[in-house]
Hints:
Structural class: mainly alpha
Helix content: 55-70%
Order of helices and strands: HHHHHHHHHHHHHHEEEHHHHHHHHHHHH
Mean pLDDT: 93
Number of strands: 3
Strand content: under 5%
Low-confidence stretches: none
Number of domains: 3
Amino acid sequence: MRDEKMNLTYREMDRKLAELHARIHESGEKDKAPYLATDEANAEVEKEWESLKNQVEALPAPDGVYALLKHHFQDFLDSLHFAILDAKNYPEGPFLSAHYGLASVGRGNNGPAEERLAAAANGLRWMQQREAEYLNLIKSRHPQSEWGGLSQSFAREKVMLESEGKHIDEYYSDFSEEQKKELADTVQAQLELLDRMAKALEQETPKADPMADDLSRTVKMDVEEYRALLRDQLGVSLDELLAWHKEEIEKTRSECLKIANELGLEEPVKDMLDVRDILFRLEPPCESAEEMFERANQYLKRTRALAHEYVKLPDHEQCRCVPLPDCYKDSYPWGGYEGGDFRKVPYHGQMFLNQYNYQNITDGWIKLNSLHEAYPGHHVQYVRAAMDPTPETVKIGTKLIPILEGTCLRTERAFQFIFAEDPVFALFVAYRRHHASVRILVDLMMFYYGAALEDVVAVYEKELGFDRVTARAQVQAHQNTPGYFTCYYYGMKKITQWEQELGFNKWDYTEMLFSAGYISIESLQMLLNLSAEDRERYFNDFPSLLREEKA
């Protein structure tokens, strides 16, 4: 049923939730101060959060569409509360991610130079202005026994930001010389700030190399903290992972061996090291990074044409393959994706591949990335999130990673036929799916069981045949984002199961997944069970009020 008054009530609630999200995640752009988690600020936002929680609980939900949106709002509140606690407990967070911000604004924001300068510099300036307040918060929120580790983290961030700062001319090529100097001076001031913070937190123990890599240590989390992170931030059930992850690893390994032994090779394929050797031998890496980028952009032309057959996309969208930013080289062994600016048309995104590791990026990885990262993968998700008339909180996303990554993992197999001339690609897709299942084991080993990092690196070396550098980079990616890599297989498993159970054809289901927006896997299940008419209401009747007001 369509109820315009109730629709407006839900749209207004969507706006309120988005505004609180912006307040907590504000980075200092447009002269707005980023959120500083003082006791007073925490009390204020927690009070506001509690009020919104009560308002959401009081929303009437007379049919499945409203029930879906109400559930989504509750998911969003869970994520907001997690973010509030994270800002409270880890006030050092903005300092330790500055290098990512410098690179991502430079590469992903296509606004005018003045706007990009503010986006890159204002958050840094805010930290510099409130140095003493931040330092006091950090000391008050961490026991003194942790200060030495924090000092190392600040020293490490200084090294990484210094590296990214060398690319200002490249990332901000449209800037005037005066603007480049202003940004460079701001970065230099931040480097000096990081140095002072590191020294203020130093302990009397001998100083270690901030970039040293101690693989004997563990990164185990408190079980309930890990469970809460998976549940409230990612929408993943720890109990489900524990119940079936070993079985799925056996299944994906067996599939790889079966496909490999059907290729008609002279020698039988006995284990995953044999599989890895086949993939390298039959479809080796390119001879140079330049050749790799050229090949990738050719594959993107093919996968783009495919995506336009299955998903509603504007003609002007574009995705190209570019070199990897330096800040990602140690945690993205193959590559990744960066979307553009929601506010800017045409919609342009970038798939990147790791030029420093091109010797280990086989043809299979290049083909697969053109599907997973671009078409119909993350780039298509970005374009649809930007163009579709969905609620603001659906564009922002909550507990979205299982559908985000699960959809793209499904894409790899659902659309592998585009490279049907390649008899080995099916084996690579199976290998990649095994990789996704092993990622769950690795995450559990690290954060649930507390295995030493050396033992975790060895899993990737022995189970997937990764070289040492690639295996370590994979583990570093886990360290940077606990729980994240459980989402690929977790989401795919549910998404493909529902596709079979509900009887969707490939075209309709693909469009459905990219229409859903950045919602939780539970919300997706609710959406799939709606009637076709009710799904259209969800897709069209609750556009963002914030975007309407800014238009």
